[in-house]
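Handout, section B. The chain below has 193 residues.
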Amino acid sequence: MTELLKKNITAHISLSDPEIGTFCNLFQHQIIKKKSFLLREGEVCKFEAFVVKGLFRVYHIDQNGFEQILYFAIENWWITDIDSFTNETPSQLFIEALEDSEILLIAKKEKEYAYANLPQIEKLFRIMTQKTHVALQRRMIDNLSKTADQRYIEFSTKYPQLIQRLSNIQIAAYLGITNVFLSNIRKKIALRK
C-alpha cells in the first residue's frame, strides 16, 4: 500500500528506512468510490492526499455554473486544497473521484508532527510546492498565450494516460473550452494525419 508513497518520497529526498516508516505510518488509507467527493466547496480541507490508485478532478464552479478544472490527479500524484488546508478556511474547490480510488491521507496535525520530528519532510513538501507553483505558472502562461488547439495537443502529449481515462467534457473543462469546440479540434487533428 505504501510502496508507491515510499518511491515518491525517495524520488525527492533521502530518508532512512525507519524514518520512511515513521512518516508513512502518519497516513490513513481510504477507499473512495467513483463519483464520491473527497472535498466539497464550503468545507475546510483537513488533509493532503497521495493517490495510490484511481483518478480525481479538482475543480471550481464559477458564478455561471461552469466547471473550471484546476487539475487531475492520478496514481503517484498529490491532491489537496492548499489554501483551505493551510489557512483553515472554507474551500472554494471540489475534489471528486472519477474512478474507484485509493488514497493515503495525512492530516495537518500529523504533518506538523513530521515537520518537527523528521526535518527532511519539510524539504519534501517544499520541493513539491515548488513543482506545483511551476506547473501552475506554466498553465497560466499557456492559457494566456496559446490557442485551444495548442493547449489540447500539449495536454494530450504530456498526459497520454489521462486522455484515455477522461471524457471529452472533462478535458474541455480543463482546457476552458466547450465540448463542441474540443470535438472540432480533434476532427482537425485527425484530418491532418
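Note. The beta strands are 28-32, 37-39, 47-53, 55-61, 67-74, 78-79, 94-97, 101-107. Compare this with the example in section A.
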